[in-house]
Amino acid sequence: MMMAQIREIKFSKFSVALPAFLTIVTMPLTYSIANGIGVGFISWAVIHGASGKGKKVHPLMWVVTVGFLIYFARGPISSLMGG
Predict the structure, then answer these.
(1) What DSSP designation does 55 have?
(2) CA 47, CA 22: separation in Å to the nearest integer?
(3) Rounded to whole angstroms, how far apart are CA atoms 8 and 74?
(4) CA-to-CA distance for 35 and 74, rounded, in angstroms?
(5) Which of 7, 19, 47, 72 has the fewest CB atoms inside 10 Å of its own CB, making it the most exposed?
């Protein structure tokens, strides 16, 4: 059902294609829909920020992106601290 929607993605636009591809690949590799969505959010925000379109990104998108960055950084940070 979800895979049928892939044909609607504009793979000709890099700023759309890469986050979509990373989301699609991350979900089955990590066995987690949340991880896939998080990688998609982060990559989308980083690509738009790096390409000079950062001001067009809604502030809530940046908040969610920072939340996912904290989510992904929590594990490595706690293992570095011996936890």
Answers:
(1) G
(2) 12
(3) 34
(4) 13
(5) 7
